[in-house]
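User: Reviewer 2 asked us to show a designed sequence for the structure in our supplementary figure. I'm pasting the structure tokens here. Could you produce the per-position amino acids so we can include them in the response letter?
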């Protein structure tokens, strides 16, 4: 990709981005199409934080018994 092609690509991408974020509905549709959100509006499993065990989530290490 040469410089002119790169500039054109960036320009088209910026136009697309401005269109996608122009309304809440368009942004939500984009997130659903891309697989980030589910149809109900929640994060898809792939992007949701994975549950951790309570003992692993603390910053203080446990002392050996």
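Assistant: Here is a per-position design you can include in the supplement:
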């Amino acid at each position: 990709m040469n410089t002119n092609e790169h500039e054109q690509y960036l320009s088209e991408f910026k136009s697309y981005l401005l269109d996608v974020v122009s309304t809440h509905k368009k942004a939500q549709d984009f997130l659903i199409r891309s697989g980030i959100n589910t149809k109900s509006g929640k994060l898809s499993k792939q992007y949701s934080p994975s549950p951790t065990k309570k003992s692993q989530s603390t910053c203080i290490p446990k002392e050996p018994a």
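For the response letter, you might also mention the following. The chain has a mean pLDDT of 87. Residues 1-36 form one domain.
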